[in-house]
Amino acid sequence: MLFNVQPKTSIDELFGRRAEYLTFLDAIEKKRNFFIITGPRRIGKTSFLYATLNELHKEYGVPYAVIDARAATSLNSKYPQRIIAEGLHKAILGKGFVGGIISKVRGIKLSGIEFELHGKPPNITEVLSTINESNDLVIIAFDEAQYLRFSNEDLTRLFAWILDTLHNIVLVFTGSQVGVLENFLRIDDGNAPLFGRYEVRISLPRFNPSESLEFLRRGFEEYGSSMDERELLPVVNTLDGVPGWLVHYGAHRIDGLTNEEAIEQVLKKAMIYVETEFKELDRLSPRYRKIMRTVARLSEGGSYARWEAIRDSLGGRVDEKSMRRYLSKLVDYGFLETIGYGKYRIPDPVLYRVFRRL
User: Per DSSP, what are the bridge partners of residue 98?
Assistant: First the structure.
């Protein structure tokens, strides 16, 4: 169901991502082993990831494991390697990995479909080596991988070792904070572990207006409802082809809310989302929030805010170097985008409306 608010897990449930799936499949057949999947917040990266991996598992028997980097770092922010190793073992049990792998790994004992840890924590390199030796092809994905930057170790060294040594393992990284993910992986840094590796990039774009209308039409049709497309057009313009917001709008309408009430609920949800996502920047400086409010005010009507005007909004007390650092970080986190030299705007119209209210 398109208006199911849970992440999609099947290609049949996924709307408008057929080309991206075929790109992924084609690269797998060419034996590519390093993927980066990006897109704005609420674009459906997790849905695309699970739907794609489930399809490969169903059609081709390819086992996979997905590690939620947010969970790994929240459970053990300085040493997520243990959480990653445990996640890999759980996936081994449920996704068609060759039987008996766990029994080969020191410190692991099986109990039914669960496993118990005894003695020292599982050694992640040993776990990965055993998985590699026991399978012809395995996909290991890190969802919202930029959170792994909080580890006390440089995990990109581990990833480089996997790519260079464990040729049966495919690594997939997703991220909505695209600039932060890039800074973590440092693919273009000549001194970084992952420099020079060949990566396949898949960017998930917003739906265009026609695709958004078709998404909403099909979603309502699944519930035996129909909506006037002229009524939906302002919704499409407001939510700007972001699947996550379209899903929430549709779910609220199915639950009986009016058009205006459904949009208001989406904005409330977005406001909570922003408050959660913005905490890290708020801890660094209150100026980040002020800059976002300024850009929202200056870019009214789909326009943009100029660098000089943003700087002036801070009272002229910020030097040029600091100002560029603030703006660069907001771009890295996906809250702003550049549309030309010294021109900035909020790419998500829902977030634009949220910052207009803050």
Answer: none
Tell me the pLDDT tens digit for each residue of 267-284: 898 888 888 888 889 999
- Do 159 and 289 belong together in one domain? no
Helices 320-332 and 287-298 meet at what angle, rounded to 10?
80
Number of domains in the chain: 3
Is 146 domain-assigned? yes
Residue 259 Cα to chain centre, angstroms: 28
Instruction: Note down the domain range covering 310.
Output: 284-357
Q: Which of 28, 20, 23 is nearest to 47 (CA)?
A: 20
Reading the block at residue 88, the tokens are: 């890999």
Indicate if 77 and 195 belong to the same structural domain: yes
- Cα 125 to Cα 161: distance, rounded to the nearest angstrom: 9
Provide the percentage of residues in the chain whose pLDDT is more than 90: 53
Structure token pair of residue 65: 């494991």
Q: What is the DSSP string of 307-333?
A: HHHHHHHTTT-S-HHHHHHHHHHHHHT
Together in a domain, 192 and 319: no
Give the Å distances, CA to CA, from 309 to 28, 49, 189.
Answer: 47, 40, 33
pTM beyond 0.90? no
CA-based nearest residue to 70, from 164, 149, 188: 149
